[in-house]
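Before relying on records like the one below, remember that each one covers exactly one chain. Contacts with other chains, cofactors or solvent are not represented anywhere in the record.
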Amino acid sequence: MLDSHMEAAVEWFVGAVKNTETYRKYRYQLERIKEKPEMYEKINEFRRRNYEIQNTAQVDELFEKMEAFEREYEKFREDPMVNDFLRAELAFCRLMQEVDTSIAYELDFE
């Protein structure tokens, strides 16, 4: 459980993240995609399959499986709305990874 000082710091941090252009673009693209339930469902399937491949494939077969996956979804990814969403999501994920890395580094967490 967070003490009041940490709760305030987390609240401030969340506000700072929400005020980034990266987060605002991600939220905008997410709302656009959600307006098209069928497309949103396909994107979620794409994301789920991508995650499964990257987290269950053996190292020696990962490249081959990812190539097949990319070929399968090539036409789908050509849709500008899909591409815009996936790019915005990736940018936001990278932002959060950088934050996590910075926090771990500053706290001397190995």
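Helices lie at 4-18, 21-34, 37-56, 59-72, 74-78, 80-106.
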